[in-house]
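User: I'm writing a tutorial on reading structure tokens. Could you give me a worked example: one chain, its sequence, then its tokens, then a sentence or two explaining what the tokens reveal?
Assistant: Sure. Here is the example chain.
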Amino acid sequence: MATINISAARNPATGKIQGSYDPTLMVQGGSLSDIRWMATGGLTDGGSLFINTSALSFTTPESLNYLGHGTGWMYSNSVGTQLQTHSTTTALGSKTWEYEYNATPNREIVVDGGIRHLKAKIWASTGDFFDAAGMLNYDVGRATTVGDRLIQYSRGKCTVGAGNTNDDSFQMKSQRIGAYKNLDTNVNNSAYLKNYASGCTLDIYNDVSGSSENYYTRGINKKGQPYTELWQWKQNTPNVADGSHIITSCRADLFSGLVIRKVMAKADHIGNANPERPRWIKWQDYLGNRGKNGTETLQTDVDWLCTDFYAQLNGTLFVIADNATLSSATQICPLVPTAFTSSTSWGLRLWRGGITTGYDTCYLHMLDADMNSVVAKNLQSGAA
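And here are its predicted structure tokens:
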């Protein structure tokens, strides 16, 4: 990975750190020679970060949408407002979130840790099989083709009451991709992430047959510990194992929160037998399948909070993390693009998400098509 050192300066009028348009640069292990940045309002959540380079190339996504990140629908509506189908203003124009339970919504805006979330409540009386909150859906605009990358991120936590002694056996599903919104029509050539206490799996329906691959040996904590999932799905040539799944997950209760990164290369997740190709990025928030015969039931309600939803088709991705090395980070969060001026000049919205430390310990990462960090810089000091 190329290492770039960037200078930073303090604005004497505001006292805030700002990047310089003419920093002194030192390059180690690569051919990069120039990258410039400026945080016009200082390094603060909600501020604007502008990046300009003559050495790198930024690829504009074909499609993107977000919900949360300190702005938009969750912050323009009052606490307690129930989720509805709505539009988001993005750097690529107006984009729509479609909500399955639009007539009888079951997600509402709440504040947790000073950040707004959507809360889904799962009631104890609903039995063994239930959908926690209905699907949150985003259509990227077209069916994917060979080599396309669907990128999906969210942060959440699930709190199962103390009266549920068998809660670790409950199956949790949240992030999905497929050819149709919700669970409409069929699940041909679709995939989703699934968590049990015993492990986390990626479930794939190649044509109509299902298969699972483990990506970690312990499931998401159901006692209110936060987690994040950043998932990139790269489409294969049908019936050829040349695709990939890359999952980067942060679990606050596992090994002091170290990132879990699982690369499933040469994946053959798309088959020829059926025409369906993914175009919908979805969040389900499902808790069920408790026990082989459904004998384990909820004794108390469950709260499931999610926020900072992000969906993207192809293109460059920037994330912020609390470590220069992603595998040593405890939390990561994508930065929402605000402007695609050119292939060498972008605007980003600063947002740390669940990262509780200041920008002095946060690093900006530019990820390549294989989700590797090609640039990792602390924006305040400029250090690698």
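What the tokens reveal: The CA atoms of residues 110 and 117 lie 5 Å apart. The helical segments are 73-76.
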